[in-house]
Amino acid sequence: MEKDAAALPPAPDKGESSGAKGMRARSGDCDDVTDDFISRLPDAILGTIISLLPTKDGGRTQALSRRWRPLWRSAPLNLEVGTTASSVPPSAVSQIISRHPGPSRRFSFPGLRAGEFDAELESWFHSRALANLEELDIGYASRTIRPLPLFVLRSASTLLVLKINKCDFCDQIAPGMNFPLLKQLSLIRVSISGDVLHGLLSGCHALESLFISEVRSSRCAPANWLGVPRVSKLLPLSVLRSASTILIAKIWNCDFSDETLPSTMVFPLLEQLSLINVSMSGDVLHGLLSGCHALETLFMSKVRTASCLRVTLRISSPTLRSICLSRRSYGITELVIEDAPCLGRLLIPYSDQDDCVTIRVVKAPKLEILGPIPFRAPKQEVLCDSPDFSKFRIFQGMNLVSSANSMCTVKVLALRSSSCELHAVLNVLRWFPCLEKLCVIFYQHKLKEKKIESQYDQLLPIECLQTHLKKVVFKSYVGTERQQLDFAKFFVLNAKVLNKMEFEGYDDYIINTAACPHKILQVENRASRDAEFEFKSSSVR
């Protein structure tokens, strides 16, 4: 009981009405807040600030001063129920609602347990305080999904954000379901029939953001979400029927049916699309992207094509600004940027040396950020004379990128390399003559430690080292490894306009270099007198 009481906001002051206190505060009786400029803000602004605070912190603002004392009860309530430090326990909710007349901005209870607080939950949603919710986040913590109580959607007409997790939508929910103001909808591990889903989305007339993850048909057998694979994770076609208003779509752990027609996949306003761990045919993928007329950001991770066929993904978009192809996307073996006049970022994080991917840039005049490009570690104890891109290749037009076919627009480049591949990295730098920032992410290799010979011919200088390269970043840096020291030392001695060099590594390794950088890196002989050095440590391995 003492713990629940601590979570409650202070009780009203019986000796003085809230109206009198508010009048005195607004009339300038602020003897305890003379230098408090925040307290001089209008009540409406202070109420908004309180409603954005965690539940406990919002209630505690009543103890700040007489000026703040009446504000919590008039500010929109942000009620987060749970066991975290910022939330309140379920046993305290009824008392909080009795002291706060409403309205409520947000109610969050993602950890419901079947059979607990069932009666209280219904009384909460029928209270005046929760009558006109704007944000609702509700779900069960159990392994199996539970029926969604009908009364939780009592505020459907005012909801702006709705997140439902591990719930079963019954067929009785569909009739008359209307969410005229809803902008963000998240359905995670829910069971729902196609008709109910269609009814739900048809009632969302202003939907802008849709997040779908592991949605299954209610006709499938019950599943254990934490351990047993679901019977079906086929994306219901009903999801695409609300496409005309959506700005952001995130689809996770779902399969696109081959019956999905390109004509049904039209997203005229969609700006951000994320496809994560999804399966679809090449035709469906192209049809989906062709229907996104305003797309600016495309993120794909673990996208599998049907039957694991080799698919060439062709991008032609006048609006696309960023593409991220993360981790292995099985079946997508070639990415062709045919015409992307606004594309500025082409990111390939977490790519593997064995990924078989070809990137062909035909027309992307604003492409400035590229990588990380994975190098293939040498198979023998010899230095690499050129990077091995036997499975990962980059073309500009019809030809491989090279010193003769350079990409002059790229200003930021990231590489994943072992420390024994300096000469190969230098060859790559010739491909990007206007490079301003280089990030090298080291990975471990099994070669014996040996001194690096850069084989850098001063009579054939690298253009970016002479005139453009201003920043170099080394990640996963091991200061005790001689090859990495030689790798970094090369740029200290040869990058003539370098402004900054950063080393990011683990505590014990970074300290070794940071203790005496002048001696280890030969800073006194640096090519750029303006170069500065920064060492960032991380305790996480």
Kindly name the structural category: alpha/beta
What's the end-to-end separation, in Å? Answer: 42 Å
Kindly state the percentage of residues in helix: 10-25%
Indicate the proportion of strand residues: 15-25%
- The backbone outline, from C-alpha atoms, is globular
Largest β-sheet summary: 17 strands, parallel
Rg, nearest Å:
29 Å
Counting DSSP E segments of at least 2 residues, the number of strands comes to 26
- Average pLDDT reading: 79
* Helical run tally: 14
Which spans have pLDDT < 50 for at least 5 consecutive residues?
A: 12-31, 220-232, 377-390
List keywords for this structure.
five-stranded mixed β-sheet, 541 residues
State the gist of this model:
The protein is an alpha/beta fold.
Describe this structure in words.
This protein has 541 residues and is an alpha/beta fold. The chain is built from 14 helices and 26 strands. The chain has helices spanning 2-7, 18-26, 43-52, 55-60, 71-74, 93-99, 118-125, 194-202, 282-290, 422-429, 463-467, 482-494, 507-515, 517-521; strands spanning 77-80, 104-112, 135-140, 146-147, 161-165, 167-168, 184-188, 209-213, 248-252, 272-276, 279-280, 297-301, 304-305, 311-316, 322-326, 332-339, 345-347, 357-361, 369-374, 392-396, 399-400, 412-417, 437-442, 471-477, 500-506, 532-538. Strand 24 (471-477), helix 12 (482-494) and strand 25 form a beta-alpha-beta unit.
